[in-house]
Specification:
Elements: E1 4-12, E2 16-21, E3 27-31, E4 43-53, E5 56-62, H1 65-75, H2 82-91, H3 94-103, H4 107-110, H5 117-131, H6 141-153, H7 158-167, H8 175-186
Parallel strand pairs: 3-5
Antiparallel strand pairs: 1-2, 1-4, 2-3, 4-5
Helix pairs in contact: 1-2, 3-5, 6-7, 6-8, 7-8
């Protein structure tokens, strides 16, 4: 797997570069967001991710490790493939994506070609807890972790557990009673 490369841009495509890697003579087509584009003859340094799928391999390249990390998180979202994840990062820098997740604002995602309301909301639902601090849980780090872990252990998603715990964050409860109160909020739904 190629994790980093530097070389000279030989050719550019709509969303890709062909890079001649120093010392190897290989031409690699790398899918890149707009900010990482360079003109032919220019040097380029890219943090890369190799994505292998049934229809072939895609090498995606990014100008920073933060963008690479964001790309990998986007790939974890159901319905987001490698090229769509690159389009998201072409449209918005990583810090703007984190802000949209924190604000639960689907509009920046919906502005990307191929992403509708449902997929934008799924991105927020699946990534919010992974990329921003867990909001609203004010019971101290060990108590918050214990209650959250217990609910996840019972089969609820991390997001469902967080939302239930946020609703009772202001209440002065020990961990056991906090879990019981969260379960009441979650209702009688049978966890998967």
């Amino acid at each position: 797997m190629i994790g980093y490369l530097e070389g000279l841009v030989i050719r550019t495509g709509d969303d890709s570069l062909v890079v001649k890697v120093h010392g190897t003579g290989l031409g690699l087509e790398v899918v890149v967001p707009a900010r990482a584009r360079r003109s032919p003859g220019q040097p380029v340094e890219l943090h890369t991710h190799t994505h292998i799928a049934s229809d072939g391999a895609i090498l995606a390249g990014f100008g920073s490790a933060q963008e690479l990390d964001m790309y990998r998180h986007l790939l974890d979202v159901t319905g987001v493939g490698p090229r769509m994840a690159v389009r998201v990062l072409s449209s918005h820098p990583a810090d703007r994506i984190v802000q949209a997740l924190d604000d639960e604002d689907p509009r920046p995602f919906q502005a990307v070609s191929g992403i509708g309301r449902k997929l934008a909301n799924r991105i927020i639902l699946e990534l919010r807890g992974k990329l921003v601090p867990e909001p609203g849980i004010r019971i101290g780090p060990s108590g918050a972790d214990e209650a959250l872990d217990a609910l996840v252990g019972l089969g609820y998603t991390r997001v469902e557990a967080q939302l239930a715990l946020e609703q009772i964050a202001a209440e002065d409860l020990d961990v056991t009673n906090r879990i019981a109160a969260a379960l009441r909020i979650l209702g009688t739904r049978v966890a998967p």
